[in-house]
Amino acid sequence: MEKLIKEINSRLLEIVDNYQDSVVKEAIKYSLMAGGKRIRPIMMLQVINSYGIDYHDYLDAACAIEMIHTYSLIHDDLPGMDNDDLRRGKPTCHRQFDEATAILAGDGLLNEAVNVILKACYSNDLKISLLQILYQASGINGMILGQVLDMEFENKKANHQELDLIHHHKTGDLISAAMKMGALVCDYKDMLIWQEIGYKIGLAFQIQDDILDVTGNSEILGKKVGSDLQNHKSTYVSLMGIDKSQTIVNQYFKEATELLYKLNVKYELILEIMEKLKKRVK
Amino acid sequence: MEKLIKEINSRLLEIVDNYQDSVVKEAIKYSLMAGGKRIRPIMMLQVINSYGIDYHDYLDAACAIEMIHTYSLIHDDLPGMDNDDLRRGKPTCHRQFDEATAILAGDGLLNEAVNVILKACYSNDLKISLLQILYQASGINGMILGQVLDMEFENKKANHQELDLIHHHKTGDLISAAMKMGALVCDYKDMLIWQEIGYKIGLAFQIQDDILDVTGNSEILGKKVGSDLQNHKSTYVSLMGIDKSQTIVNQYFKEATELLYKLNVKYELILEIMEKLKKRVK
Q: Among partner residues B28, B115, B148, which is closest to A104 by beta-carbon distance?
């Protein structure tokens, strides 16, 4: 997986280096290269790998997903949103630069992710399908809706189902899209199963975030812990405690694994990602 | 032109009404329907009209341009950017709602403009070409670069050439893209001439903005005047005075008209837009 991360990082750098020099280019580079785990692009590329297909041609599409993920983090950290100072152990984009630069850096990433796919060496039909999956997932009925719901429940208690709905859109939509984009170029008939796997992993991932906000180490996490409690935010942990939350995380990973076994692919590549996610401490 | 504006408005409303209900949907609707002049979509559709081709099929692409224009205004008005309270005589998006909602509304519009084109009844080849023109123009080497340059020159004097470069990207790129998108569906061989016409009009438009910031009526303009002077911002007016600036505006419109005469189209439709722009007081 390390090789994959290196290839993703090097392609992301190439993409950004093509922009005209400006402070916003620097801010984009700073946030893109701040040590993200690259989970979403890895998922897309390992899905392709699991069919025995060479993933190198699809690095561009995978980078587009990471660009959208990074834009969402930059805007999410802004003073007008979560007002966070630290991300991955480094100053957030608006802290390192300034607010205007961070707003434009986020806008730039969301905009340029389109251009990355448009410029890639894919057929026009494939470009359209990739853009459809990606921008549906990141849009007003997808990831952005997740952000809105998250905001709406900042000052009122969310129940279990409401939390799931927030997680489904805020995290699940983009992770699911990454897996679907991988399946699209291999065997589109499997797309719905991959989508389901993506949602299971997305929900598990988000509950882990809630747990890590209580049990995690702020130095390892690279951001402050305890903020959910401080903000009186409803989380899985506040609703059902750490142990029960961890049981649900395990259950989601188990269900994702069972779905995976329905597919005629090299499971071990995806199981490896899930094992890594299960053990994550950041 | 009134009929065109009505059709654009009604299509924009249809697009937004399809989103899931949320405060961000309301904010998008509020800003989209706040009485914009619809210059960019009108330009695209009148270029198509000028070839004698029915523009109705292209309303979606025209709306996508307006959505990108509106997102740029919402983000531009944010406290972290220009911190404006009024736009078109109404509270800016973050004033009417809140900052987080305005950030997400802008993100939503930029994201959904892609989906509008993807969902339109065009061939995949046409969708790709339209997206290429639009997202190149609005991106990190286009409109966003214009914003960055504008920021960079907030605290230092810009000369004539530097101002032109800012205007070229900040306003010219998107207006030019609108004309190119119209030409693309009619006669792509004319695209470069339309691009040039777009840049001339864009520069004239932006210098008019500088003039109106000094001579305009804040009630008619729907925003406060005198802000450039207050912010010690370099403008055409501060560099060469009102009369000389007006002469340059007229010269750009004249050059745009001369370019127009090179084309085998119904000029009068485009001349009508230019006449309206020449006389604009808001």
A: B148
